Amino acid sequence: MSETVRTQHRVRASELVGRNWLNTGGKSLDLEALRGKIVLLDFWTFCCINCLHVLDELRPLEEQFSDVLVTVGVHSPKFEHEADPVALAAAVERYEIHHPVLDDPELETWKAYTARAWPTLVVIDPEGYIVAHLSGEGHADGLAVLIPELIAEHEAKGTLHRGSGPYVAPEATSGTLRFPGKALFLPAGRGSAGRGSAGRGSAGPGSTRPGSGAQGSGAQGTSDGGTPAAADTATDGSWLVTDTGHHRLVELGNDFQTVLRTYGSGTRGHADGPAAAVDSVEPTARFNEPQGLVLLPEDVAAKAGYDVVIADSVNHRLRGLSLTDGKATTIVGNGVQRLLETGPARVDEDAAGFTGQLSEHPLEVSLSSPWDVVWSTKLNAVVIAMAGTHQIFSFDPVTGAVAIIAGNGLEGLLDGPAHEAWFAQPSGLAEDADGNIWVADSETSAIRKLVIDAGGTVTVVTAVGKGLFDFGFRDGPGSEARLQHPLGVTVLPDGSVAIADTYNGAVRRYDPATGTVSTLARGLSEPSDVIVDHTHAAGSEPLLVVVEANQHQLVYVPIPKEAQQVDEGASQTHRPKSPVAPGLLELTVRFTAPTGQKLDDRWGDPTQMKISSTPPELLVAGGGTSVGLLRTLELASDIPEGILHITARAAACDGPEDADGEIPDHAACHLYQQDWGIPVLLTDDGDTELVLDLRGMD
Questions:
Q1: Is tRNA-binding tagged as a keyword (predicted)?
Q2: What angle do CA 645, 353, 415 make, to 5 degrees?
Q3: 246-266 CB burial, b ≥16 within 10 A, e <16
């Protein structure tokens, strides 16, 4: 058996306990009903980009071993909104999860399996014993070795039962849009409306309701000159929307109901070529959950050969779309998820990451879940929110140069010089009048700013937000205000920033002049983007266009003359506290490279930990960044409780070693990383040792 992931102890799996089951046809499951199957528990939460990566990593394994493997998603929420069963059901549908899901809002099953991080995978053999415990993503290759070993062992013992699993598909929803992600205004002359009626379609059955669903916000807001739906599309432009759940783009008229053109076949995948039905040519281009998009300046578009840049998130690529001939082209990304930070791009012992140009050959660069894009007039490049690696990239459409401009790849909230800054799943971008870039940093529930000087040097500052586990719904001074997993930002005419505060179902405003936060609209269903529509107004103010993802629509929201002031409190993610003793604490992170891989020591020790604490006074000694996965910490005796923030990394490469025992230059390499926030309770009889699993168990 694979010693890299197998535990040597026979540990009986705990029962699966929660509020409800999804994708089972209304039936409850227990381990007895799953006996004879290899069971893979996937502890996830739907805000987490690493969890979404794991969903995609597991799909081929679920298909390959469909008669023996049962994946059970154990949804253990981080944010308050994620504990809403309606929101969870929408997420299961949105991400096309085709296995049973246990709703575990009280973290009962999470605690029973001592999960400490999202995502965590636990493998249970057909006899009901735990055989592997894995943290983070990137474990598909190891599982592809382990599962056949378990099949062989239990077929020989007669304990393996082949056959269909307990998954029952839910009823599908239909409509013009399905969980739309982002939207882009196309001025007159650049969308299909400015080129006549060729390629126009109809919304069809279940078309999007124009402007409904924003409670008390006047979502179908009328201007002094009439409703937006009455405007002439050819005169006033149109809207290009990433129809994320349908894996395509849709161009809508200003009524948000008339479909002018669609781009993409609507089938999940990756393919370049015709994306729109033009001149009787059927679209063959494919996208995979497209998200952000940006319209290039006309002079840049003329040189690049395409008009729109699209963040094709699950394909880990940027795509270019020509609005003239409707063709889609891959412009950045080789399709391999960016996991490894070797050589010059690895974080050093001072937690300083590499910033600068990666390559002038954009199709050779690996990306990781690009989520939004914006044009930077100062950098003369497309700026990319690289959610999967917690960084900000750039791309020059003319030269092809790809660069990292901010973020060292560690997950969290830390300001300062670009190469030292931490982000946590940046998901929305907007440029202000000074050429600075505002960032919706979703997992820290924060609004950050990239301050770009005349020489292109970037400094990161935080306007709103405290940390990975702090969120809420509170207006007021930015230092005290709280958001909940924001996904979109836009800059208003007065220089303030409108925020799609996704999990609070609201549009918020941050005013840099006063440093305060207020609320513009509430009652929205997971707003994922917000855009200023300068072509329509409500009184003296332009209208906002909000992408209301879970209502599958775009809505107009007027900017109120008097913003609301809301204080529903600040919250923290609640997880079980580990009892530890004051004084010395021995920390061990276990990692063994999977079979067929070797630790990549070509640039020194390929393992690394960064440790800090909240409050900072909790950690007397042992903090900071250094190589190795063993560390002696010293905890203060006068601090009753706190959180240890631990990030561990290990780099390993595939392929047989050469005659000198070295990794071949052409070997495929992988980065294993996990970020833990361990709540601790200090007590004299507490533990003096803390062991975490990055990969495998003893």
A1: no
A2: 60
A3: bbbbbbbbbbbbbbbbbbbbe
Alpha-carbon distance 661 to 657, whole Å? 5
Residue 668: count of CB within 10 angstroms of its CB: 12
- Confirm if 144 and 15 have CB atoms less than 8 A apart: no
Query: Residue length, the chain?
Result: 698
Collapsing DSSP to helix, strand or coil, 199 comes out as: coil
Distances, alpha carbon 214 to alpha carbons 219, 543, 550, in Å:
5, 13, 12
Peptide bond connecting 119 to the previous residue in cis, omega within 30 degrees of 0: yes
Pairing of strands 370-376, 381-386: antiparallel
What is residue 557's three-state secondary structure? strand
Distance CA 176, CA 399 (A): 37
Element at 609 (helix H, strand E): strand 607-614
State how far the Cα of 495 lies from the Cα of 490, in Å rounded to an integer.
Answer: 10
pLDDT for 190-216, tens place per residue?
876 555 433 434 333 233 333 333 333
Contact 240, 191 (CB under 8 A): yes
pLDDT of the residue at 8: 55
d(CA 253, CA 233) in angstroms, rounded, equals 6
Residue 54 tokens read as 């794991």
Nearest to 251 by CA among 205, 289, 305, 194: 194
Q: For residue range 345-356, list pLDDT tens digits in order.
A: 444 545 556 677
What is the distance in angstroms between the CA of the first residue and the CA of the last residue of the chain?
A: 13
pLDDT value of residue 194:
52
- The angle subtended at Cα 491 by Cα 490 and Cα 495, nearest 5°, is 160
Q: Give the number of other Cβ atoms within 10 Å of residue 282's Cβ.
A: 9
Give how far the C-alpha of residue 222 lies from the chain's centroid of Cα atoms, to the nearest Å: 35
**Which stretches in the chain have pLDDT values below 70?**
1-9, 174, 192-235, 339-354, 537-540, 595, 655-666, 696-698
DSSP helix/strand/coil, 103: strand
Element (H, E) at 294: strand 290-295
